[in-house]
Amino acid sequence: MKRFYKDVAVAETPEGFRFLLDGKPVQTPARQALLLPNRVLADALAEEWRAQGDEMNPVTMPLTRLVNTVVDGVRANRAGTIGAILRFGENDLLSYRAEAPAELARRQRQWDVHLDWAESRHGIRFRVTGGITHVEQSSEDLARLRALVAAQDDYALAALHVFSSITGSLVLGMAVLEGELTAGQAFALSRLDEAYQAEQWGTDREAEERHARLASEMEQAARLVSLSRT
Question: What angle, 0 to 180 degrees and rounded to 10, lies between the N-to-C axes of helices 139-150 and 78-90?
């Protein structure tokens, strides 16, 4: 799409901060008002728009895409977003361990530290099983997990959905959200199996590109939360 504006500015309103294109307020794809909680986040979005050349490239506007998700997705359907996130806790990656090979099983024991953190920080003890046999978490722990997720603001929910869906783990997602892990650390922990397999059989360009893209999405979601809380 060709660039259709010249000037980008940020304005403070009684409802919040927003940025303007040629003096006109920007709306989301669903035609909602794009209001930001602080000037720092508004400035970050404005910089994405200022940086566009003659042709606009959505790939270079990750924060804009995430904020649109907050406004058009999370706010419009908080219950659905919470439910989608909780599925990654009900079947958390960290609960399912390889029984063989021994080296992979050993590496997965790194996850125990983060399950211990979930218990000490939030009183939630995740059950663990070997192989792919389903393990059901206790109703009490699932209720605590639901309350924890439901207490997050819209920006945190959007980021948590990114973290959890990419890693397959709500534990890792919450650890990033609360600063216990960086996005990069959580991503690496979620890829122990893939890393082990790559060591044995090698990798390919497509897999490497996908890895880089997902890691970048994690980093941008973490940046969104940080800016929204500034």
Answer: 140
